[in-house]
Amino acid sequence: MTILRTCTALACVAAAASARQLPIVVDDYVPAVPVKAPASYNGTNGTTIDTKKLQADIDINKLFARAEELAKIADLGIPEYNHPTRVIGSKGHVGTVDYIYSEINKLGDYYNISNQTFPAVTGSVSESRLVIGYDVPKSASPMSLTPATKQHEPVYGQLLLVPNGGCSASDFPVNMTGAIAFIKRGTCSFGDKSANAGRAGADAAVIFNNVAGELSGTLGTPSPDHVATFGISLEEATPYVDMLHNGTKIDSIVYIDALVEEIMTTNIIAQTTAGDPENCVMLGGHSDSVAAGPGINDDGSGTISLIEVATQLTKYEVNNCVRFAWWAGEEEGLLGSYYYSQNLSPAENQKIRLFMDYDMMSSVNFAYQIYNATNEDNPLGSGELRILYEDWYKEQGLNYTYIDFDGRSDYAGFLDAGIPSGGIATGAEGIKTAEEARIFGGEAGAWYDPCYHQLCDDIHNLNATAWEVNTKLIAHSVATYAKSFDGFPKRVAGVEERGLKRREKKTPMFKYKGNDLVM
Ligand SMILES: *[C@@H]1O[C@H](CO)[C@@H](O)[C@H](O)[C@H]1NC(C)=O
Ligand SMILES: *[C@@H]1O[C@H](CO)[C@@H](O)[C@H](O)[C@H]1NC(C)=O
Ligand SMILES: *[C@@H]1O[C@H](CO)[C@@H](O)[C@H](O)[C@H]1NC(C)=O
Ligand SMILES: *[C@@H]1O[C@H](CO)[C@@H](O)[C@H](O)[C@H]1NC(C)=O
Ligand SMILES: *[C@@H]1O[C@H](CO)[C@@H](O)[C@H](O)[C@H]1NC(C)=O
Ligand SMILES: *[C@@H]1O[C@H](CO)[C@@H](O)[C@H](O)[C@H]1NC(C)=O
Ligand SMILES: *[C@@H]1O[C@H](CO)[C@@H](O)[C@H](O)[C@H]1NC(C)=O
Ligand SMILES: *[C@@H]1O[C@H](CO)[C@@H](O)[C@H](O)[C@H]1NC(C)=O
Ligand SMILES: *[C@@H]1O[C@H](CO)[C@@H](O)[C@H](O)[C@H]1NC(C)=O
Ligand SMILES: [Zn+2]
Predict the structure, then answer these.
(1) What pTM, to 2 d.p., does this model score?
(2) Is residue 505 part of a domain?
(3) What are phi and psi of 137, to 5 degrees?
(4) CB 450 less than 6 A from any atom of ligand 9
(5) Which part of the chain is the PA domain (predicted)?
(6) Cβ 439 under 6 angstroms from ligand 5
(7) What is the distance in A from the centroid of ligand 7 to the CA of 427?
(8) Same structural domain for residues 211 and 343?
(9) Which atom of ligand 1 is nearest to the CA of 273?
(10) How does pLDDT run across 461-507, given as a tens digit for each residue?
(11) What is the pLDDT of residues 395-445, one digit of tens each?
């Protein structure tokens, strides 16, 4: 099951909100209409945008000064979380959104800023325990956004093996009342499996991996049918699967104390008042961090690169509109970017010529990574953007690699909406290969970002070389398309291009939704 068919963030948040009768306050984004700017500012100081000049305006000291400010803002999360964080719903995140807004607002009439507020789901597990027979599986991990077990108490029941992966109601044993569903990963999302188990009467579900290794994922958009759900490794599941096949009865205990709640959070969008509003180059990073830490690299780095490029851009006259976005709720499953991209009217969708994603620009043990966004598999124009990045690294005499374009960041909603996309990154929890250490320096066998999603993603978790290089590349991408879309494919007007190529190939859209595995 793909994200598209399970639920887009829009459908998710809407469904979740209506289920709980939440008021949806939506400050919907209405794009800039060309208006006469005030006499004090004519949209330019007479200097035409030029990529070399804009790149030369990028100053690493200014990026670091902003990182210091962001680290202080993350400290606003301490009273509630006991450590710095900028997770949505925290004071650290509200402070980040205020900071972005005020920094762009300082630039006067060069930008038109709007807030897009939307409901977002967050979950937290305070306690959990799984016992199968007499064993406590070491790999047991509660799925993100899992509900608690009934009354937040342990449930006791027979472990029943669900044939065929539990993707349809008919897979389930006739009477699952009071039982615990034991389901294999695959074919459909974890959320669907859990909901099917709930509808069949199960009190809880345990999903086991279908490949070697542990299984931790997310149920995605909450459903009233979801039951408390764990993931466990294939290795730990196999003996029980054999016993159940043999007709052995196995009793289990599942306990999850968790809270899933909805809050309101905000995307910030800033668009140049000058430039052709029918042809926009759009770029974004995410304003939020995970709860575990301050997120100074993820994605404080991209957030700051965008603020600085937006600031320096004001020295120049643009021919095409430039639209910056700072998404909220990326860490909860790309919520803000999906909300935005799925809410575009067809006419507004067509005005976005491309979307560029800038998430994690400054990993300590970095690689220069380009999303492998080919035209073959993605909306036309993605491939041209990929070439722009390649050409630039080559021109600088720098090496680069490709990484999977698999739905781990905010471009996913744009691809779903048929908008050409791409981007660069410097690496998260992946392990640097010996070959990469040879071409980029750094340490082979270690994570690209040793503090990924941890408390230590702080002011020290940045590499100045990578950050400066990549912010210049961001400046280059903005300057190039702000000047001209010559040679860049036109959007295909009136055609539902969205997700077409991936669907034609009948491959699942994305395996991930943000950082979480969904199926
Ligand atoms: C700015 O955007 C608002 C709506 O978000 C629109 O009403 C206004 O005309 C725009 N202003 C300019 C100067 O483009
Ligand atoms: C805008 O103002 C600048 C400096 O005041 C001037 O050089 C330029 O020609 C003006 N541009 C337009 C389009 O009026
Ligand atoms: C938009 O958000 C910023 C930052 O939180 C806030 O200062 C501003 O008042 C908001 N504007 C509107 C129109 O809600
Ligand atoms: C299903 O199983 C439960 C628990 O064993 C039992 O109480 C219930 O009567 C059964 N329901 C049906 C329809 O068989
Ligand atoms: C399954 O049952 C067979 C026959 O009773 C037995 O030989 C075998 O050891 C059992 N396997 C497991 C995993 O319990
Ligand atoms: C206009 O842009 C030039 C080139 O970057 C810059 O040196 C100058 O300070 C700018 N002038 C104003 C008034 O912003
Ligand atoms: C990039 O994607 C294309 C398909 O779109 C694939 O053929 C190619 O092998 C991929 N390259 C890398 C380095 O992953
Ligand atoms: C690029 O990789 C080559 C090895 O293939 C290496 O010799 C060279 O130093 C690298 N360039 C940079 C700028 O690191
Ligand atoms: C950044 O990375 C480069 C290349 O690996 C390395 O030479 C430099 O020391 C690093 N800087 C910091 C501050 O870690
Ligand atoms: Zn990120």
Answers:
(1) 0.81
(2) no
(3) -60, 130
(4) no
(5) 157-237
(6) no
(7) 18
(8) no
(9) 14
(10) 999 999 999 999 999 999 999 999 999 999 986 445 545 555 455 44
(11) 999 999 999 998 889 999 999 899 999 999 999 999 999 999 999 999 999
Asked if residue 319 has its Cβ within 6 Å of ligand 7, the reply is no
Residues 22 and 75 grouped into a single domain: yes
- Asked whether 105 lines ligand 3 (CB < 6 A), one says no
| Residue finishing a domain among 249, 279, 296 | 249
Q: 115 CA distance to ligand 3 centroid (A)? A: 6
Q: Are 339 and 9 in contact, with CB atoms under 8 Å apart? A: yes
Question: Are residues 333 and 453 located together in one domain of the fold?
Answer: yes
Q: Tell me, using a 6 A CB cutoff, whether residue 465 lines ligand 8.
A: no
For residues 141 and 105, membership in a common domain is answered with: no
The distance of Cα 516 from the centroid of its chain, to the nearest Å, equals 9
One domain for residues 23 and 148: no
Is the same domain home to 203 and 292? no
With a 6 Å cutoff on the Cβ, whether 504 touches ligand 7 is: no
Could you list the residue range(s) of the whole structural domain that residue 162 is in?
A: 134-249
Task: Please give the span between the terminal C-alpha atoms of the chain, in angstroms, as a whole number.
Answer: 7
511 occurs within a structural domain: no
Identity (one letter) of the amino acid at 184? K
CA 244 vs CA 132, 137, 142, 164, 417: distances in Å: 12, 16, 22, 15, 44
Alpha-carbon span 304 to 309, nearest angstrom? 8
281 and 421 both lie in a single domain: yes
Instruction: Extract the tokens encoding 485.
Output: 């879309």
User: How many distinct structural domains can be found in the chain?
Assistant: 2
Q: What is the CA radius of gyration of the chain?
A: 24
499 within a domain of the structure (yes/no): no
Last residue of a domain, one of 199, 225, 249: 249
Distance 251 CA to ligand 3 centre (A): 54
Ligand 3 atom with least separation from CA of 113: 1
Q: How many residues does the chain have?
A: 519
- The residue among 301, 290, 285, 336 whose CA lies nearest residue 478 is 285
Catalytic residues: 330
| Ligand nearest to the Cα of 42, by number | 2
Ligand nearest to the CA of 298: 10
Structure tokens at 90: 């925290």
Are both 317 and 381 inside the same structural domain? yes
What is the Å distance from ligand 1's center to 321 Cα? 13
